[in-house]
Amino acid sequence: MKTYNIAALAGDGIGNEVMREAIKVLRATESKFKFKLAITEAPVGWAGIDAAGKALPDVTLALCKKSDAILFGSVGLPERDPTIPKEERPERAALLRLRKEFGLFANLRPVKLPKVLAHACPLAKERQGDGIDILVVRELTGGMYFGQPKKTEDLGGGNFRATDTMVYTTPEIERIAHVGFKAAELRRKKLTSIDKANVLENGILWREVVTRVGKNYPGVTLEHMFVDNGAMQLMLKPTQFDVMLCENMFGDILSDEAAAIGGSLGMLPSASLGTTSGEITFGLYEPAGGTAPDIAGKNLANPIAQILSSALMLRHSFGLNEAAAAIESAVQRAIESGHRTGDIFSASESGARKVGTREMGDAIAAVV
Ligand code: NAD
């Protein structure tokens, strides 16, 4: 029986509570599908600073290096973060450091709004069709956020000039396009590539390369859309999208816009993938939200984002597609049977009952 090694870094705030539920569901899946998970927990974020003086302790980084994947909670506490220099703060010193260390260039953000949670979506019901199911694939290490030159010049007299540079090379676009098309093959086989080819040189190159890569995936329908129209279409007709492929900044913005229609931050998982020896297998899997200090330690957090992140890990790092799908459908069933944490509860919904973090985890683990 194959053993997969997982570094479980719960972090701060609600991290421990939701991680515990994800591990519970993983254990239920392990016994059903007959694989072995070696899960080792280690501190990160303020938990790392308190235990070992830094947000990403050496032992934690060493554990990640010898693991097959990282299951990450969330880090950072708004009350404590400002008390230390920016570069030592958890999000920068732990999360960004891990992304860099492992070359995590592909960010996957699925947004799935089941029909029964229509009330949790800000869009009118008629725009939600049979439920929204979009995967935003965002390039994570290139584009405007990292391009050089990047500087602010003092022109004198209180006048400054700030420069950011958008740069992409063919191989950077190719590798993220492959991730997008492969994901589309496993879904509804449609890929919408987002760009600004009418204005940006980067957009022209992006469109050319994505079109060329798409020829390797004849089963996937490719369409191109300008980013401004993409932002509008997400609000008008989100059901038209399957996979949205975006460069870094466009993906940053559109994935948050898509998240807003996903019901709650507590429902949204994410995967950040990198390459090991040419194969994309290593990944960091985490909820889209943060440490939610307002509800931490009260058994109120929705564990679904963390649980679905663990399903992404089984699929993308370990190739355990059946087990991943079993977790996703268990989440769906727990929701359909009326289990609601506070963030997705509506008193007007008949048959729904408010449950805590632990009870939601139990309900999902029971039906995996
Ligand atoms: P947040 O995402 O933690 O919380 C925003 C709102 O969403 C809160 O009302 C919170 O209760 C709710 N929420 C989030 N996750 C939820 C869940 N699982 N179930 C139910 N409700 C949930 O954002 P914030 O308050 O702006 O940030 C809090 C801290 O988290 C900050 O220190 C921030 O830097 C950090 N943060 C970390 C990450 C990360 O580790 N990747 C991401 C975002 C924010």
Give a description of the structure.
The protein is of the alpha/beta class. The chain folds into 2 domains: 214 residues, 3-Layer(aba) Sandwich (Isopropylmalate Dehydrogenase); 140 residues, 3-Layer(aba) Sandwich (Isopropylmalate Dehydrogenase). Helix content is 38%, strand content 23%. The strands form 3 sheets. The protein has a 10-stranded mixed beta sheet, sandwiched between helices. A two-stranded antiparallel sheet has the order 6-7. Strands 13-14 form a two-stranded parallel ribbon. Helix 9 runs antiparallel to helix 10. The protein binds nicotinamide-adenine-dinucleotide. The site of nicotinamide-adenine-dinucleotide (NAD) has 24 residues, from helix 4. The site of nicotinamide-adenine-dinucleotide has 24 residues, from helix 4.
Characteristics:
binds nicotinamide-adenine-dinucleotide; Isopropylmalate Dehydrogenase; 2 domains; single chain; 368 residues; two-stranded antiparallel ribbon; alpha/beta; globular; 11 helices; 10-stranded mixed beta sheet
Query: How are strands sequenced across the largest beta sheet?
Result: 2-1-3-12-11-4-5-10-8-9
Give the number of domains.
2
The first-level CATH class name of the largest domain: Alpha Beta
| N-to-C SSE string, H for helix and E for strand | EHEHHEHEEEEHEHEHEHEEHHEEH
CATH architecture of the largest domain: 3-Layer(aba) Sandwich
